[in-house]
Design goal:
Elements lengths: L1 E6 L4 E8 L3 E9 L1 H5 L6 H23 L6 E9 L3 H18 L3 E5 H7 L12 E6 L4 E8 L2 E7 L5 H11 L6 H9 L23 H13 L4 H30 L3 E5 L6 H13 L3 E3 L10 H13 L24
Parallel strand pairs: 1-4, 4-5, 6-9, 9-10
Antiparallel strand pairs: 1-2, 2-3, 6-7, 7-8
Helix pairs in contact: 2-3, 4-10, 5-6, 5-7, 5-8, 6-8, 7-8, 8-9
The structure holds 5'-O-[(R)-(carboxyoxy)(hydroxy)phosphoryl]adenosine and zinc ion.
5'-O-[(R)-(carboxyoxy)(hydroxy)phosphoryl]adenosine binds next to helix 5 and helix 6.
Length: 337
Protein backbone atom coordinates (compact mmCIF):
# COMPACT_ATOMS: atom_id res chain seq x y z
CA UNK A 1 0.00 0.00 0.00
CA UNK A 2 1.24 3.46 -0.96
CA UNK A 3 0.53 6.06 1.75
CA UNK A 4 0.58 9.79 1.12
CA UNK A 5 1.84 11.70 4.19
CA UNK A 6 1.03 15.37 4.80
CA UNK A 7 2.68 17.56 7.45
CA UNK A 8 1.51 21.16 8.07
CA UNK A 9 1.63 21.56 11.85
CA UNK A 10 3.94 24.57 11.98
CA UNK A 11 6.18 26.32 9.45
CA UNK A 12 7.06 23.48 7.06
CA UNK A 13 4.79 22.17 4.32
CA UNK A 14 6.00 18.61 3.80
CA UNK A 15 4.68 15.70 1.75
CA UNK A 16 5.92 12.15 1.20
CA UNK A 17 4.90 8.79 -0.19
CA UNK A 18 5.76 5.66 1.81
CA UNK A 19 5.12 2.09 0.71
CA UNK A 20 4.49 -0.60 3.31
CA UNK A 21 7.04 -3.01 1.73
CA UNK A 22 9.21 -0.82 -0.51
CA UNK A 23 9.86 1.91 2.07
CA UNK A 24 10.15 5.61 1.38
CA UNK A 25 9.34 6.39 -2.26
CA UNK A 26 9.53 10.19 -2.47
CA UNK A 27 9.43 13.22 -0.22
CA UNK A 28 9.53 16.97 -0.55
CA UNK A 29 9.36 19.98 1.70
CA UNK A 30 8.85 23.72 1.54
CA UNK A 31 10.22 25.69 4.50
CA UNK A 32 8.55 28.98 5.45
CA UNK A 33 11.66 30.21 7.27
CA UNK A 34 12.02 33.26 4.99
CA UNK A 35 8.38 34.25 5.58
CA UNK A 36 8.71 34.27 9.38
CA UNK A 37 12.31 35.42 9.62
CA UNK A 38 11.58 39.14 9.76
CA UNK A 39 9.12 38.62 12.66
CA UNK A 40 11.62 36.60 14.73
CA UNK A 41 9.19 33.68 15.07
CA UNK A 42 6.29 31.88 13.42
CA UNK A 43 3.24 34.06 12.61
CA UNK A 44 0.35 31.53 12.69
CA UNK A 45 -1.90 33.26 10.13
CA UNK A 46 0.94 33.60 7.62
CA UNK A 47 1.82 29.95 8.18
CA UNK A 48 -1.75 28.81 7.39
CA UNK A 49 -1.94 30.91 4.22
CA UNK A 50 1.39 29.63 2.98
CA UNK A 51 0.37 26.00 3.59
CA UNK A 52 -2.72 26.64 1.44
CA UNK A 53 -0.54 27.96 -1.39
CA UNK A 54 2.10 25.23 -1.27
CA UNK A 55 0.37 22.00 -0.29
CA UNK A 56 -1.38 21.02 -3.54
CA UNK A 57 1.67 21.69 -5.78
CA UNK A 58 3.82 19.64 -3.39
CA UNK A 59 1.37 16.71 -3.49
CA UNK A 60 1.49 16.80 -7.29
CA UNK A 61 5.28 16.91 -7.10
CA UNK A 62 5.71 13.83 -4.86
CA UNK A 63 3.34 11.86 -7.10
CA UNK A 64 5.31 12.90 -10.20
CA UNK A 65 8.67 12.17 -8.49
CA UNK A 66 7.38 8.72 -7.57
CA UNK A 67 6.08 8.13 -11.09
CA UNK A 68 2.64 7.42 -9.65
CA UNK A 69 -0.86 8.67 -10.30
CA UNK A 70 -3.41 9.33 -7.59
CA UNK A 71 -5.08 5.97 -8.24
CA UNK A 72 -2.03 4.20 -6.74
CA UNK A 73 -2.50 5.83 -3.33
CA UNK A 74 -4.11 3.47 -0.84
CA UNK A 75 -4.32 5.77 2.18
CA UNK A 76 -3.58 9.29 3.40
CA UNK A 77 -1.84 10.22 6.66
CA UNK A 78 -1.96 13.79 7.95
CA UNK A 79 -0.67 15.53 11.05
CA UNK A 80 -3.74 16.28 13.17
CA UNK A 81 -1.83 17.73 16.15
CA UNK A 82 -0.20 18.99 18.22
CA UNK A 83 0.54 22.25 16.41
CA UNK A 84 -1.00 25.51 15.22
CA UNK A 85 -4.77 25.17 14.74
CA UNK A 86 -4.98 27.01 11.39
CA UNK A 87 -1.93 25.25 9.98
CA UNK A 88 -3.22 21.83 11.08
CA UNK A 89 -6.63 22.51 9.53
CA UNK A 90 -5.08 23.11 6.11
CA UNK A 91 -3.44 19.67 6.13
CA UNK A 92 -6.45 17.95 7.71
CA UNK A 93 -8.98 19.48 5.29
CA UNK A 94 -6.83 18.73 2.25
CA UNK A 95 -6.10 15.16 3.37
CA UNK A 96 -9.70 14.43 4.23
CA UNK A 97 -11.01 15.89 0.95
CA UNK A 98 -8.51 13.92 -1.13
CA UNK A 99 -9.31 10.72 0.77
CA UNK A 100 -13.00 11.22 0.06
CA UNK A 101 -12.37 11.98 -3.61
CA UNK A 102 -10.01 9.03 -4.07
CA UNK A 103 -12.17 6.76 -1.88
CA UNK A 104 -9.29 5.71 0.39
CA UNK A 105 -8.98 5.79 4.21
CA UNK A 106 -7.36 8.72 6.01
CA UNK A 107 -5.55 8.57 9.33
CA UNK A 108 -4.83 11.41 11.78
CA UNK A 109 -1.20 11.23 12.91
CA UNK A 110 0.22 12.66 16.13
CA UNK A 111 3.15 14.90 15.16
CA UNK A 112 5.36 13.67 18.02
CA UNK A 113 4.64 10.04 17.15
CA UNK A 114 5.89 10.96 13.69
CA UNK A 115 9.15 12.22 15.22
CA UNK A 116 9.34 9.18 17.51
CA UNK A 117 9.10 6.76 14.58
CA UNK A 118 11.44 8.72 12.26
CA UNK A 119 14.47 6.47 13.14
CA UNK A 120 12.46 3.59 11.58
CA UNK A 121 13.12 5.14 8.17
CA UNK A 122 16.85 4.37 8.50
CA UNK A 123 18.74 1.26 7.38
CA UNK A 124 18.98 -0.34 10.79
CA UNK A 125 15.78 0.60 12.60
CA UNK A 126 15.70 0.06 16.38
CA UNK A 127 13.63 -2.91 17.58
CA UNK A 128 11.06 -2.27 20.33
CA UNK A 129 11.21 -1.67 23.28
CA UNK A 130 13.32 1.46 23.71
CA UNK A 131 13.54 4.80 25.47
CA UNK A 132 12.73 7.81 23.27
CA UNK A 133 13.97 11.34 23.84
CA UNK A 134 11.93 13.74 21.70
CA UNK A 135 13.38 17.23 21.50
CA UNK A 136 11.58 19.68 19.24
CA UNK A 137 10.52 23.32 19.15
CA UNK A 138 7.35 22.66 21.13
CA UNK A 139 8.08 19.54 23.18
CA UNK A 140 10.69 17.78 25.31
CA UNK A 141 9.54 14.28 26.13
CA UNK A 142 11.14 11.14 27.57
CA UNK A 143 9.02 8.10 26.76
CA UNK A 144 9.24 4.38 27.37
CA UNK A 145 8.15 2.82 24.07
CA UNK A 146 6.87 -0.77 24.02
CA UNK A 147 5.53 -0.55 20.44
CA UNK A 148 3.68 1.79 18.10
CA UNK A 149 1.13 3.64 20.26
CA UNK A 150 2.34 1.96 23.45
CA UNK A 151 3.88 4.93 25.21
CA UNK A 152 4.58 5.58 28.88
CA UNK A 153 5.58 9.15 29.61
CA UNK A 154 8.70 9.18 31.82
CA UNK A 155 9.37 12.91 31.88
CA UNK A 156 8.71 16.18 30.09
CA UNK A 157 9.65 19.83 30.23
CA UNK A 158 7.87 21.82 32.90
CA UNK A 159 8.41 25.07 30.97
CA UNK A 160 10.29 25.79 27.71
CA UNK A 161 10.92 22.98 25.24
CA UNK A 162 14.56 22.29 24.33
CA UNK A 163 14.15 23.84 20.86
CA UNK A 164 12.35 26.84 22.31
CA UNK A 165 15.27 27.39 24.71
CA UNK A 166 17.69 27.22 21.75
CA UNK A 167 15.55 29.67 19.76
CA UNK A 168 15.17 32.17 22.62
CA UNK A 169 18.89 32.06 23.47
CA UNK A 170 19.74 32.53 19.79
CA UNK A 171 17.44 35.57 19.64
CA UNK A 172 19.19 37.03 22.70
CA UNK A 173 22.53 36.61 20.92
CA UNK A 174 21.16 38.44 17.87
CA UNK A 175 20.77 35.37 15.62
CA UNK A 176 18.00 34.88 13.08
CA UNK A 177 14.96 32.61 13.53
CA UNK A 178 14.99 29.61 13.81
CA UNK A 179 17.94 29.98 16.09
CA UNK A 180 18.92 26.39 16.88
CA UNK A 181 21.20 25.71 13.89
CA UNK A 182 22.61 29.28 14.01
CA UNK A 183 23.43 28.95 17.71
CA UNK A 184 25.20 25.63 17.04
CA UNK A 185 27.31 27.34 14.35
CA UNK A 186 28.24 30.17 16.70
CA UNK A 187 29.05 27.70 19.49
CA UNK A 188 31.61 26.08 17.19
CA UNK A 189 33.67 29.29 17.50
CA UNK A 190 33.29 29.39 21.28
CA UNK A 191 35.52 28.25 24.11
CA UNK A 192 34.91 26.76 27.53
CA UNK A 193 34.89 30.01 29.51
CA UNK A 194 31.54 29.90 31.34
CA UNK A 195 29.92 27.09 33.29
CA UNK A 196 26.13 27.10 33.03
CA UNK A 197 23.78 25.10 35.32
CA UNK A 198 22.50 21.63 34.40
CA UNK A 199 18.88 22.20 35.48
CA UNK A 200 17.08 19.60 37.64
CA UNK A 201 19.94 17.11 37.48
CA UNK A 202 20.74 17.39 41.22
CA UNK A 203 17.41 15.82 42.22
CA UNK A 204 15.74 12.58 41.22
CA UNK A 205 13.19 12.47 38.40
CA UNK A 206 13.04 12.68 34.65
CA UNK A 207 11.35 16.04 34.08
CA UNK A 208 13.16 18.95 32.50
CA UNK A 209 13.14 22.71 33.08
CA UNK A 210 14.99 25.13 30.84
CA UNK A 211 13.70 28.53 31.98
CA UNK A 212 16.41 28.86 34.67
CA UNK A 213 19.09 28.10 32.09
CA UNK A 214 17.58 30.80 29.87
CA UNK A 215 17.71 33.35 32.73
CA UNK A 216 21.28 32.37 33.59
CA UNK A 217 22.22 32.88 29.93
CA UNK A 218 20.50 36.29 29.89
CA UNK A 219 22.33 37.42 33.03
CA UNK A 220 25.70 36.23 31.70
CA UNK A 221 25.05 38.04 28.43
CA UNK A 222 24.04 41.28 30.18
CA UNK A 223 27.19 41.33 32.32
CA UNK A 224 29.48 40.52 29.37
CA UNK A 225 31.02 43.08 27.01
CA UNK A 226 28.91 41.57 24.19
CA UNK A 227 31.79 41.04 21.76
CA UNK A 228 31.53 38.34 19.08
CA UNK A 229 33.78 36.10 21.21
CA UNK A 230 31.60 36.65 24.30
CA UNK A 231 28.56 35.58 22.30
CA UNK A 232 30.32 32.52 20.90
CA UNK A 233 31.47 31.51 24.41
CA UNK A 234 27.92 31.92 25.75
CA UNK A 235 26.51 29.85 22.86
CA UNK A 236 29.14 27.19 23.63
CA UNK A 237 28.29 27.12 27.36
CA UNK A 238 24.55 26.99 26.64
CA UNK A 239 24.90 24.10 24.19
CA UNK A 240 27.14 22.18 26.58
CA UNK A 241 24.64 22.63 29.42
CA UNK A 242 21.78 21.50 27.21
CA UNK A 243 23.66 18.46 25.86
CA UNK A 244 24.87 17.34 29.28
CA UNK A 245 21.45 17.81 30.89
CA UNK A 246 19.81 15.70 28.18
CA UNK A 247 22.52 13.03 28.52
CA UNK A 248 22.12 12.84 32.32
CA UNK A 249 18.34 12.42 32.02
CA UNK A 250 18.62 9.80 29.26
CA UNK A 251 21.14 7.82 31.31
CA UNK A 252 18.70 7.89 34.22
CA UNK A 253 15.82 6.80 31.96
CA UNK A 254 17.85 3.85 30.63
CA UNK A 255 18.81 2.78 34.15
CA UNK A 256 15.29 3.22 35.51
CA UNK A 257 13.62 1.21 32.72
CA UNK A 258 16.40 -1.37 32.37
CA UNK A 259 16.31 -0.84 28.59
CA UNK A 260 19.45 -0.73 26.47
CA UNK A 261 18.23 1.18 23.41
CA UNK A 262 17.72 4.93 23.13
CA UNK A 263 16.24 6.77 20.19
CA UNK A 264 16.59 10.53 19.88
CA UNK A 265 14.44 12.53 17.47
CA UNK A 266 12.88 15.95 16.83
CA UNK A 267 14.53 19.09 15.41
CA UNK A 268 17.08 19.51 18.22
CA UNK A 269 18.39 15.98 17.64
CA UNK A 270 20.08 17.37 14.50
CA UNK A 271 22.53 19.11 16.87
CA UNK A 272 25.98 17.55 16.53
CA UNK A 273 27.15 18.21 20.08
CA UNK A 274 23.96 16.75 21.55
CA UNK A 275 24.38 13.67 19.33
CA UNK A 276 28.02 13.34 20.40
CA UNK A 277 27.27 13.53 24.13
CA UNK A 278 24.34 11.10 23.87
CA UNK A 279 26.50 8.69 21.90
CA UNK A 280 29.26 8.91 24.50
CA UNK A 281 26.84 8.34 27.38
CA UNK A 282 25.19 5.38 25.60
CA UNK A 283 28.55 3.76 24.95
CA UNK A 284 29.41 3.96 28.66
CA UNK A 285 26.01 2.51 29.54
CA UNK A 286 26.45 -0.26 26.96
CA UNK A 287 23.31 0.93 25.22
CA UNK A 288 22.70 1.60 21.53
CA UNK A 289 21.56 5.01 20.37
CA UNK A 290 19.58 5.71 17.17
CA UNK A 291 18.99 9.02 15.41
CA UNK A 292 17.12 9.83 12.20
CA UNK A 293 19.25 11.32 9.39
CA UNK A 294 19.45 15.12 10.03
CA UNK A 295 16.78 16.01 7.42
CA UNK A 296 14.31 13.70 9.18
CA UNK A 297 15.12 15.14 12.63
CA UNK A 298 13.28 18.35 11.76
CA UNK A 299 9.69 18.34 10.49
CA UNK A 300 9.11 16.25 7.36
CA UNK A 301 6.41 14.33 5.54
CA UNK A 302 8.24 10.97 5.55
CA UNK A 303 7.73 10.43 9.29
CA UNK A 304 4.00 11.18 8.98
CA UNK A 305 3.59 8.83 6.01
CA UNK A 306 5.49 6.11 7.93
CA UNK A 307 3.49 6.52 11.17
CA UNK A 308 0.21 6.64 9.22
CA UNK A 309 1.13 3.55 7.23
CA UNK A 310 1.61 1.51 10.43
CA UNK A 311 -1.81 2.55 11.72
CA UNK A 312 -3.63 2.11 8.39
CA UNK A 313 -2.15 -1.37 8.01
CA UNK A 314 -3.51 -2.22 11.47
CA UNK A 315 -6.96 -1.24 10.19
CA UNK A 316 -7.18 2.13 11.91
CA UNK A 317 -8.63 5.18 10.12
CA UNK A 318 -10.56 8.37 10.82
CA UNK A 319 -14.20 9.08 10.01
CA UNK A 320 -15.09 11.87 7.57
CA UNK A 321 -14.75 14.66 10.16
CA UNK A 322 -11.94 17.13 9.66
CA UNK A 323 -9.99 16.43 12.81
CA UNK A 324 -7.33 18.74 14.32
CA UNK A 325 -6.08 18.83 17.89
CA UNK A 326 -3.63 21.65 18.76
CA UNK A 327 -3.04 19.98 22.14
CA UNK A 328 -2.90 16.23 22.19
CA UNK A 329 -1.06 14.22 24.91
CA UNK A 330 0.95 11.44 23.24
CA UNK A 331 0.04 8.86 25.88
CA UNK A 332 -3.62 9.06 24.78
CA UNK A 333 -2.76 7.28 21.51
CA UNK A 334 -4.03 3.78 20.83
CA UNK A 335 -1.79 0.79 20.26
CA UNK A 336 -2.00 -1.17 17.03
CA UNK A 337 -4.03 -4.10 18.35
O1 LIG B 1 10.91 19.13 15.27
P1 LIG B 1 11.03 20.50 14.72
O2 LIG B 1 11.48 20.65 13.29
O3 LIG B 1 9.66 21.26 14.84
C1 LIG B 1 8.82 21.11 15.92
O4 LIG B 1 8.11 20.08 15.97
O5 LIG B 1 8.87 22.00 16.79
O6 LIG B 1 12.00 21.28 15.69
C2 LIG B 1 12.35 22.60 15.46
C3 LIG B 1 13.32 23.03 16.54
C4 LIG B 1 13.60 24.52 16.51
O7 LIG B 1 13.52 25.01 17.83
C5 LIG B 1 15.02 24.58 15.98
O8 LIG B 1 15.74 25.71 16.42
C6 LIG B 1 15.60 23.30 16.53
O9 LIG B 1 14.57 22.36 16.36
N1 LIG B 1 16.80 22.86 15.81
C7 LIG B 1 18.04 22.80 16.37
C8 LIG B 1 18.93 22.37 15.35
N2 LIG B 1 18.20 22.19 14.21
C9 LIG B 1 16.91 22.48 14.52
N3 LIG B 1 18.45 23.07 17.62
C10 LIG B 1 19.76 22.92 17.88
N4 LIG B 1 20.67 22.54 16.98
C11 LIG B 1 20.31 22.25 15.70
N5 LIG B 1 21.23 21.86 14.81
ZN1 LIG C 1 8.29 18.68 14.79
Amino acid sequence: MYVLGIETSCDETAVAIYHADKGLISHTLYSQVQTHNEYGGVVPELASRDHIRKLTPLIKQVLADAGLTASAIGGIAYTAGPGLMGALLVGAATARSLAWTWQVPAIAVHHMEGHLLAPMLEHEPPPFPFVALLISGGHTLLIEVAGVGRYRLLGESLDDAAGEAFDKTAKLLGLDYPGGPALAQLAAQGQARYKFPRPMTDRPGLDFSFSGLKTFTLNTFNTSTKTHQDKADIAFAFQQAMAETLAIKCKRALQQTGLDRLIVAGGVSANQEIRRQLQQMSQKERASVYFPRPEFCTDNGAMIAYAGCQRLRAGQSQPLDIFARPRWPIDELLGLD
